[in-house]
Each structure stands twice: as C-alpha cells, then as structure tokens.
Amino acid sequence: MESSVASPDTLMAGGTRADARAAAIPWYLTAVLFASTSVIVGVIWDISWHQTIGRDSFLTPAHIAIYLGGIAAGIACGWLALKTTFGGTEEEKGRSVKFWGFRAPLGAWIAIWGAFAMVTSAPFDDWWHNAYGLDVEILSPPHVVLALGIMAIQVGALIMALSWQNRSGAEGERNRRLSFAYLYGAGMLIATFAVLLTEYTYPNDMHASPFYRVTAGAFPLVLFAVGRAGGMKWSATVAALVYSGLILAMMWILPLFPAEPLLAPIRRTVTHMVPPTFPLLLVFPAIAIDLVLARTGEGGRWKDWGIAAVGSVAFVLVFLAVSWFFSEFLLSPAARNYVFQADNNWPYTSSVGGWQHEFWNEDIAADGRITAGAFAAGAWWAIPIGIVSARAGLMWGNWMARVRR
What we know:
about 0% strand, single chain, about 65% helix
C-alpha cells in the first residue's frame, strides 16, 4: 500500500517551485520593460541609420524596433486593463485606477497613452520626411511626439515596477527583482534624456558652459527621483550604470554591421553603421547623489530644498571634473579605436576637418578671449538650474515612493 504522505524531496521541489513563482515578476511588467528597451534601442539605431545610410524607406529595421516596442506596451497594458476590469479580484480593482469605466494600474494607463502617441507619430514622421527629406535636428515636430510617447512608456514601466515594489515589503528575492526592474526602467529613461540632448552633449561641447547648464537641468531631475524612490542603497548609481551599459552595447555592436550612404550629399566615407558617442559619465555624479541622499535621509518641504542645493553642487562639480578631462581624452588620438569609437561618430553628410577634434562654443570674455573667468560666468548658472531640477526630482521621488496603484 502506497503512502499518501509526500516525500521530503517532493515537498522541497514543490516549495522551490512556489518560491520561484513568488519571486517572479508579472509577465506584463516584463513586456513593458521589453517595450521600453525596444523603443530606445530603435531610436539609437534609427539615428545611426540616418547618419550612415540616409532615408530609404519607412519600414527600416530601426523603425520596426521602435514601433514594436509601442505595440508591445499597448497590447500588454490593454490586456491588463481588460483583465482588471472584467476579471480582476476586488484586491486588483482596489489597487487600480478607473478611466472611462475601465480599470488598470496607473503605470499601465501611462504606457497605453505612450503607445497611442507613438502610433500617431508614425504617419506624421513619414509625411515629414517625404516633405522635408533628412532631419536637420533630432527634435523635429514628429520626433517630439514620438519622444513623448517613448518617455510615457518608460515612465509607465517605471511606475508599474514601483507600485509592485512598494506593495511587496522590504525583504525577499521578489522585492530585489522588482527593485532592479524599477531601476532598469529608470536607466532606459535616462538613456532617452541623453539621446534627446545629443546635439548639446558631444565631447566637443564639454569645455563650454551651455553643456553644464543643459545637463544640470535634465539629469538631476531623474537621478534624484530615482534615488529617493528606489528600494536599493545605490539606486541612482545602478540606473546610471544601466544607461551606460545600453549606450556602450549600441556603440560596440552597430559598427560591426557594414553599411554605406544611399542619399546625397556624401561628404565622408562611411563603411559601417555609425555608433553613438561614448556615454556621459553620469555614474560619478550619481554616486555623489546617492551619498547625499544616504546622509540626509528623508526630508520635508524645506529640508528637501537644502538637499537639492547640496546635491546640485555635488552633481555640477563632480560632472564638471570628470567630463572636462575625459572630453580632452575623447578628442585625442588615443581614443580613436574600437573601445571608445572617437572620430567614428560623424554622419556621412558632415565634412571631414579639424573641427571634429576641437572644442566648440567655448565661452568668450568681453575682450574676445577664451578665459576661465568667461567659462565660470556662464557655468555657475548650472548650480541654480540644478537646484530646481533636483528639487523637482525629489518631489517626483516622494510621490513615487507612495505609489501603490
């Protein structure tokens, strides 16, 4: 007669499977994180496509990657809305947001809006190219609509991961995975900011004050928000590393593929896909921001202004120190290799010349000289700009830390 009592091995196997299921993250969150990755990879690939080949058709592989991400986010979050509305438990409905009679988590609604914006931008972008040809700038009107949609998907992924993290408790493998999912989404958002600011953040711009004002206005917003709401000790640093890893991967993979220009004017020889420039060294100011947040702890309204002030000074000074000297290296012959890809980032439409190894837009004093005083007079504005950006980031982070839906 067989015993009805399960063996220890069976119980252990069952417990292992249950633990694995408990530690897993929801499939639709994985789908939205995939969408977040697909769209930014597609955008970087599309920029390289324009710089290497030119405009040849709407259905390029890069465009397919972009819109695949939008469609994946729309389908996953649309399914979640239908499931929550018509088949969700009372608990699931209670942690959702109602919109037009449907229920879904807040992050899902944000991602759905982003998917609609991306799909809307597609025919607009196609018409724009047919009417005006190649883009003369990244921030053309259809690209702005597309960028808003992309950022909505990435913020949606961020909020979805964050709501799960905030509900899951302080310990456990599941919480660690959800925390990393949140920081991974944050890294994709940082990458989007960096891509949108490409025209202002070449290594050639890093000896001029506009570079520091622009970056101080953008990146403290995200880094402080991520650091304040993150479930890990080094949240801002991890997010900055995710951004750096993505850009490095694209920088090293794209040149492996042969390609050549198909649209005039062709002013330089290009034989392989043009890579993006080396990622901004945001990991160093991110470390400083994490240290500031760890030392100061939770803040109130006025304390957060003090944290923003200290954090802005830390961001600007650290970023200035690393960017100033690293940009000199990137413009030197020592960086013209596969690892750093310096001198390989220029589109086929740009003329070959010494200008690509020089610093641009350097600050000029009243007497017409480029001086340290002229730079300081323009660069110091990065600190108050950074204070506002950091304070907005702390407000955003405080809100995200309370998200449960």
